[in-house]
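Checklist before submission:
- one chain only
- standard amino acids only
- sequence pasted in full

Submission:
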Amino acid sequence: MLVGSCNISEISLFTKAWNTGNLESWLRIHEALCS
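Returned file contents:
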């Protein structure tokens, strides 16, 4: 999985994004937070 250890709450956000098919916007947020 692509989930980093930047933020534990990311896991639930990732699950929510996965379930709603909204993975692209999650990835953008993830990259912004983790870069």
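Reviewer check: The mean pLDDT is 78.
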